[in-house]
Structures are given as C-alpha cells and as structure tokens.
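Researcher: I'd like a candidate sequence for this fold, 404 residues long. If you have to choose between options at a position, lean toward the conservative one.
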C-alpha cells in the first residue's frame, strides 16, 4: 500500500537540517550518524526514550535492501505474463475456499464498510498469497536503511518513525516486525503509516496485529478501502468486447470517462456480446495489451484500487481475481501472447517521442500514462491504430525517426 497520511505532519515538524543529515548508504559511521539523526526526529514525534535507547542504536544496515531498491529489470512484463502469474487457478480455488470459510465475518465487514467480500479476499491473495508469505526482512532495519539512502530519504524517514510509533502503540518487539524489503507488513502489506491510521481491531482482542490476525487484516483492508472512497454497489469494472472499427484513440485514458450509453453507441458490448447495463455510470476504457488484447471498462472503484497500488495492471488483477473468486470465469478474449517489452526500447521510444514534441515523460523505461498518451498521439499522426501500446510496428516507425 502507498498511503502516506503522516507525511505532511512529519514534514512540518522535522527541520530540514535534520533531513539533510540523512546521507546515501556508505560507511558504517555514516549509517550510525544517520541513526542519531533519526533518533532526534523520532523523539520529536513522541517515541519513547526506551525504544530510542534500546532499539535504534542496534539496527543494522541492509545492503540487500538497497540492491533491491536499485534493481531495474531488462524486460517489462506483458499484460498476459502479469495476469498469469497473479490470477492462477490455485489462487482462485484457495480464494473461494477462504471466502466460504470467512463468509460470516466478511459479510459483517461489508455491512460496516461497504466492500464486498471477494475484493478483500482478492487483495489478501495478491499481497501475500493469503498469508502464505508475509516477508522475512527486518522491518526496522529495512526502513532505517532506506531512510539513510538519499534517493527517497524523506519518505522512508517518516515511515521509519511511524514504525517506531507502531511498535510503541502495539507493544511490539523488533523481531515481531518483519515484512517486505520496502517495509510493508502483515497479511495485507500495510506500510507503517497506513498501519497507524487505517488498521483496526477486527477480532476484538484489544490489539491490532496484521501479522497474526486474519480478522484484523481483513477488517483493516475494508476500513482502508472505505477511507479511500470505495463506492458500495459498484463493481471495479468489466471486460468488454469492441467492434472491429472501434476508434482506439478513445481508450487508455482513465481521466476521460464517458457514460455507458455513449460507450454502447460506439459498439462496446459485454464480453459475452450482450448489451452494457442501462445505468447512469461513467466509465473509462483500458486496453492494457493494445488493440489485439482484451479491453476493460473501468469504474470509479478502479481508481480506489489504484490508490492501494498505483499500477493499472495490479488493479485489473485485483478486479479479475475478485470476479473469479465470486464464481466468474476467465477472460473471454483471453490474454494476448506477446514478447516481453525491452526496457531499452521503451527508453528509446520516450527519448524520440520527446524530441518529436510528444510529451512521453521522463526517459525511464516505464510504460506509464504519459508514455502511452504520447504513443497514441504519434500513432494517430502516422495513420496507425492509436492504442497507445508499443507494439513492434510502432517501435519500428519510431526508430526510423530516431535515425534521421
């Protein structure tokens, strides 16, 4: 999860001079000096002297955390690969079993928070495979390491302090706190600031333990989604079927929603060929694998899912897994088999598109919304299918512009 509600609070309280002492990972002396700075910040935030004296000085720098933070894949996963790795038959089957096992509790949560059970189980499945892997990295060490690295020091300094506050509030020991290399913890992988703000006591034992209590984790997920603006009675979206002459320049823009009636007017139909629902709901259209792959109409709850994780592919995976857990079938159009995208090809496309006057954003090899928008404009200008996807023919035409 990515919420950072305490960020402004800490930014206002902590002097810039203190943050400036947080230096890139280097010698042990630098890390020790950084821990001293973090102690000062934590003291100002109300962390007890006992924790500051007995816990912080003993933290260890984790070089593997820096390595993982810096790792950049040579290839980018295609939509088909991404979905196949996350919405597996085993995960669907296990999700259905857990939905039945916790049905009464989950329905109570729906009554209180408005989030249907299958979505909570889907988040649980994608985050930790239903608690099968919570992560084994020492949370305080990981966060201190990242706080003492210049790349995202401010963010992780605040998360580190939030972790100490969490430790104090819940009477935790350092060994209790393990999770991902980036500091996310528990069945639903909350960052410490999210744990502090959104986690709730779901099992009624007077504590909030996202590591050991499934009820606490599921209730906290429901509370978080409600806080993000989950709209009861509205699904995440749906797979749809597009006509052969569909104008793909209308797709791929989450901020440009149209009424379902307007999409129906463009020939968009349900994935089984039936008519779209006759309801007053606005939706955007995504084609994550380009015009040859599946298409999805997405509703406002899709944006809520993306506030949990800022990835369109993740949000589609959550929605599709939730549908499957609730008894739905696989994608009607299947998942297009595509070659992995080479990161260097995306970087070259971004560089060339920017030089040609199309704003593709930073040259980082990430296929984000700015890059897809620039690709769409370039494709339109060159009489290509404007789906915003870097298929081989589009990359080939872009490469000819780069060589001029």
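Model: Candidate sequence:
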């Amino acid at each position: 999860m990515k919420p950072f509600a305490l960020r402004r609070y800490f930014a206002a309280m902590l002097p810039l001079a203190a943050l400036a002492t947080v230096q890139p990972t280097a010698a042990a002396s630098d890390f020790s000096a950084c821990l001293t700075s973090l102690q000062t910040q934590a003291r100002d935030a109300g962390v007890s002297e006992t924790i500051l004296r007995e816990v912080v000085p003993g933290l260890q720098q984790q070089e593997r955390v820096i390595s993982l933070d810096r790792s950049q894949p040579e290839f980018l996963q295609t939509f088909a690969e991404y979905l196949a790795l996350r919405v597996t038959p085993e995960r669907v089957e296990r999700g259905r079993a857990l939905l039945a096992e916790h049905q009464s509790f989950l329905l109570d949560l729906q009554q209180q928070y408005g989030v249907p059970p299958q979505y909570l189980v889907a988040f649980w499945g994608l985050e930790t495979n239903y608690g099968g892997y919570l992560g084994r990295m020492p949370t305080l060490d990981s966060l201190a390491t990242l706080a003492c690295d210049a790349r995202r020091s401010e963010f992780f300094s605040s998360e580190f302090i939030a972790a100490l506050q969490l430790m104090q509030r819940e009477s935790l020991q350092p060994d209790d706190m393990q999770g991902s290399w980036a500091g996310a913890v528990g069945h639903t992988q909350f960052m410490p600031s999210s744990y502090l703000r959104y986690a709730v006591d779901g099992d009624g034992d007077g504590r909030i333990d996202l590591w050991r209590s499934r009820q606490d984790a599921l209730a906290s997920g429901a509370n978080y989604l409600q806080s993000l603006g989950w709209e009861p009675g509205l699904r995440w979206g749906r797979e749809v079927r597009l006509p052969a002459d569909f104008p793909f320049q209308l797709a791929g823009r989450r901020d440009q929603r149209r009424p379902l009636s307007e999409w129906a007017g463009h020939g968009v139909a349900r994935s089984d060929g039936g008519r779209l629902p006759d309801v007053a709901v606005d939706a955007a259209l995504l084609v994550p694998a380009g015009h040859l792959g599946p298409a999805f109409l997405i509703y406002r709850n899709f944006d809520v899912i993306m506030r949990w994780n800022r990835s369109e592919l993740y949000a589609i995976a959550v929605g599709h897994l939730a549908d499957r857990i609730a008894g739905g079938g696989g994608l009607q159009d299947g998942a297009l088999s595509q070659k992995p995208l080479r990161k260097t090809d995306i970087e070259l496309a971004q560089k060339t598109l920017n030089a040609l006057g199309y704003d593709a954003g930073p040259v980082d090899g990430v296929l984000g919304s700015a890059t897809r928008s620039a690709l769409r404009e370039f494709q339109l200008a060159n009489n290509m299918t404007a789906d915003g996807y870097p298929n081989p023919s589009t990359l080939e035409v872009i490469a000819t512009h780069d060589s001029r």
